[in-house]
Amino acid sequence: PTTDCFPSYLRNYLICKILEKRGGELKMSFPEIMKWNGWGYSDSKFLFNKKGQAEFTGKRYRLSGMIIPGLKDWMEGTFGANLQHKTPATVSPATLNKAFLEELKSTGIPFSHDAEDRVFRAHGHCLHEIFALREGKFGRVPDMVVWPNCHNDVVKIVELACKHNVCVIPYGGGTSVSSALECPPEETRSIVSLDTSQMNRILWIDEKNLTAHVEAGIVGQDLERLLNESGYCTGHEPDSMEFSSLGGWVATRASGMKKNIYGNIEDLVIHIRMVTPRGVIEKSCQGPRMSTGPDIHHFIMGSEGTLGVVTEVTMKIRPMPEYQKYGSVVFPNFEQGVACLREVAKQRCAPASIRLMDNEQFKFGHALKPQVSSIFTSFLDGLKTFYITKFKGFDPNRLCVATLLFEGDREKVLQHEKQVYDIAAKFGGLAAGEDNGQRGYMLTFVIAYLRDLGMDYYVIGESFETSVPWDRVLDICRNVKARIIQECKDKGVQFPPLSTCRVTQTYDTGACVYFYFAFNYRGLSDPVHVYEQVEHAAREEILANGGSLSHHHGVGKLRKEWMRDTVSNVGVGMLKSVKDYVDPDNIFGNRNLL
Amino acid sequence: DKIRALDPMLKKRDDFEDMLEERRNSSDLRYALRCYTPVLYKGLAPCKASMLKSMVLQSDQLHHVIGQVSRETGRAADDVQEEASAILEEMAHCLQLSTVRFFAFTLSKVFKTLFRSICVNEEGIQRLQQAIQEHPVVLLPSHRSYMDFLLMSYILYTYDIALPVIAAGMDFMGMKFVGEMLRMSGAFFIRRSFGGDKLYWSVFSEYVKTMLKNGFAPVEFFLEGTRSRTSKSLTPKLGLLNIVMDPYLKGEVYDINVVPVSISYERILEEALYAREMLGVPKPKESTSGLFKARKVLSEDYGSIHVYFGQPVSVRSLAQGRVNRCQFNLVPRHIPRRPSEEIQSFVNDSAYRLVRAQEENMVLKPWVLLASLLLQNHHQDQTAGQKRGMVLEELTAQAVWLRDMFREYGAFLHWPVVLLDICVGGQVKPGEPHSTVTPEEELLSQAVIVLSCASYRNQGLHVFLRPALLASAINAASSNLKQEVFNSFSFLRNMFSNEFILCPGATVQDFEEACYLLVKTGALQVTQQELLVTERGQRTVAFLTSMLDPFLQGYQVVCRFLCEEATENLTEKQFVPAVRKFIIKHLLAGRLRYTEVLSSDLQKNSLAALLRLGAVQKIKGRIKLSKVTYSSVFLLRTCVNLTYNC
């Protein structure tokens, strides 16, 4: 995630360009730059060229424009995906509902009820949502989209919504993977999607206290870029930061890759302003810590759009780091890797980011290696492989890789780096170079694009996460992966699925684990249903192994059924009573969480 | 699916191969020295027997318990650690291939002399091989003879399958040389009782779990805990099953495969010993010299053995929907805790299910049928005061009738193509005892023969158990009303649940199964309200009822003993001799029909049942009638009445 990955001026430029008057109505949409039925930018995607080699198009990523020779073999080997078959994609028109239109016109706030605008905001990025889009099927979509420009606009919209009993669903970056943006099919009222994308300014920066006051619709990469111009950063970098918004982070309790230095969202926010049907909720001062009863921020963080719209946030900022360095370590097996991460966490010396990929994911990363530029590099690669597998005796089917990112002033980074590599060595880890590390992080940004390629070739997949105490990490990884494989087999999936994981964050007492899972669905009549059953089973397995319902993706509607077991009856009752007080008429009726 | 569950006829079984045949045709030495390369568990981290010990001693669980014991007793932690290490030393196996090869050679010789054939279902072996690769495996053989575990290892060695580590009772350790030999062939030794010894329990459970989790070897133990002296399956013991299921329940392994193995002997080596033991001749202590004295058995014919490796049962699928594994989320998993009620009942039900799986695949020989018929005939003769035995043709005819019934009830029968080449001069009856001095001695020596005979009959009891309970219930009930019959079925079933394998809480299923079988064979008609025995069902019902009769009389006589003779000071130890004296008196006076009630096994089971039902109480080691509650007196009286009716 260095800045060269994110030519983000494009997005702002296009947002301005696509605001145009059409037939007396303001129309606003993204289709030219963003895919409407897949992840990310329209110009960036994986495809197979005429020679049958994989290519990543566009100019946005380090991988862009490169040939990836290993991908085809990997896909065929892993999924039995035959690249001859292709699924056609179509989209169906949506039905219009103009109930809220007249009331809103007088305020001058831009809105639209164009089909594409509405469909675009009717989904997040769960597999079933994207699959439905590609198949041209879609259930309930919002009846219109509004684009407030500031806090006061939001206040007006929410007031009108209460007055006319209209359902409001806040929309930030649309990167949800918990069915949180799905419109409840049973909702009979008019549904308004409240798109915060126009509220994207930094209102002020306070260099004395190192805080910035920012509108909640700002997208991660813009926030970083704008702060960088003044020499600051927030350091909050979730994998979705190209598209996800500040308000979305707050509403879902987001976590960033570099949380070891900067903290998760709950450590970063100083002040939140939220518009609710009861009015505006906010604290009266910006003290760094308060003992004033339960922290009201914790009612807001993770409320998932059920209580109101976050409009403005004051965040901690830090001076930009002087120096960044990637790194990677190869371990003989996953067990040793986890033991090393545990030791790093124990000594509290985790770098800005430390992630451990299992063997399957390591192989996958290998398949995404771009074509090497010279015979010399290729020779060098061969030599490295030889050293690790033959000389060091690592089994290529067991070894795994940790990727590292160090940040800070140069001297400290180098010192820190040495400390971490020394620990790794105690667990049989070998330093495997900066390049491997950097490629590992790049992968997390392009992996979402890869899913779209998969779907073209009958492969569907998804990722999900959990957090778990240290003593359970190995058990949960093994059991969940095995459960996925077994469930796929039981449900009639004809090819062995990809079932892989990585330990992606470390804490004092536990870790965050990410699972990736994909399978070839040829021969299945209802692949999405099979997929959902497998994911459901995998989540049950996670919970049975002491994992949490979610580390940072949130609950949405996808994981609602487990909330009661997770927080107890009384817990659900507490949350319900807050909802009942703040939003008695269920204006924020996305039905997430409870 | 429900039909399939109820109808045992629909269960498919594999064919057998005689593994001794090859032994008879090729060199035993070459066989013992051949290349042995078993397939192993896919997740196995290779380790030696000695490494296992250090893994156990360094485990979190043991560390925790050592700390606890040291705090509680004030002893130094090092001291307790040393004790743990000594316990482990006493317990641990040291599996060595050379010893196994030695056994392979000698056992080949012994088996060829003793047995005509050892038949194994090879498909079951293949399933086992598959199961071993996928998940850690637990082998659960039935237990009828000391031979069982040698035989198991012998078979696994022959089929190139990973050799098991076997939980054995400490009694073998008395036989110095043999004990060490067994240790080197994979046996590990556990004390018979270590109730409150936390440290011992901890070392033991950790040792078993470590072997299982690492896939070091299949773990083998006997669910019944001890050899069944009566050829009936024993109520399963749950301790070890609890231990081996723990790693799955705590998520330490993805799954565990449990493989029930049914070993059926045509004739058990210990046959006569068992009968004497149950009549009060104490069991000889295991000793090496005793073993050599026992070598005269080598000259006898023990027929054939059938070993059936059942379908591997996944613990994960057993626990599906039954156990909420989240219960381990809030306390570190290495801190030992009493299993929750949910888990206790799960393990208990699983244990019953597994014992029933063993029973289902037990191979029954014609002798089982003949013994049942002869015993019934013998009792009828006795009542009539005659000693005529049975005419061979009549026995044959009855045996064929019974065979068809066995088959319909789904028994795993091995019926020879040529029937009965034995030729006894016209009449067949249980053997005649040698002439003895006192009538009591005569009675006892006859009882030895009857009990041996009964042990053959008992092999087939599980096939008839539920229909027989129903038949007796129909007889005992005051009307044909379904509810009435069910009530008396339920009472009988409850009373006999120490005697037979009857899973607690499955009364309704058992009742349905019994009805289904009797209706299917045309012996019973079930209407909305009533159960009616058909004309042709009379014979079946009579046969089934008389199968249970000896047991009913046994329970009745124990009840009468307790009502009439039990003094205030009857201790548990005195119970068996006292009740035996009481029974001998009544038998000699001709007031009791069944010599079988002399079996101490039957007496102990009935006492256990009466204790469980609350009719009797144990206070400070003494057995007392619970006079306090009206219901217990009522219960006893019902029990007595009911058995009189039958």
UniProtKB/TrEMBL annotation, chain A:
Mind telling me which GO cellular component terms the entry cites? Answer: peroxisomal membrane
Q: Which residues belong to any copy of the FAD-binding PCMH-type domain?
A: 138-320
Supply the Pfam families for this chain.
FAD-oxidase_C (PF02913), FAD_binding_4 (PF01565)
State the PROSITE patterns in the record. FAD_PCMH (PS51387)
Cofactor(s), names only, from the UniProt record: FAD
EC number(s) stated in the UniProt entry for this protein: 2.5.1.26
| Quaternary structure annotation from Swiss-Prot or TrEMBL | Homodimer.
Indicate the family of this protein: Belongs to the FAD-binding oxidoreductase/transferase type 4 family.
What name has this protein been given in UniProt? Answer: Alkylglycerone-phosphate synthase
Q: Which organism is it from?
A: Sparus aurata
Q: Taxonomic classification, please?
A: Eukaryota, Metazoa, Chordata, Craniata, Vertebrata
UniProtKB/TrEMBL annotation, chain B:
Report the Pfam families cross-referenced here: Acyltransferase, GPAT_C
Which UniProt keyword terms apply here? Acyltransferase, Membrane, Transferase
Q: Which residues form the Phospholipid/glycerol acyltransferase domain?
A: 137-266
Any single biological process term in GO: phospholipid biosynthetic process
Q: Which pathway does it serve? A: Phospholipid metabolism
Q: Where in the cell is it found?
A: Membrane
What one GO molecular function would you report for this record?
glycerol-3-phosphate O-acyltransferase activity
- Protein's name in the database: Glyceronephosphate O-acyltransferase
User: What organism, scientifically named, is this protein from?
Assistant: Sparus aurata
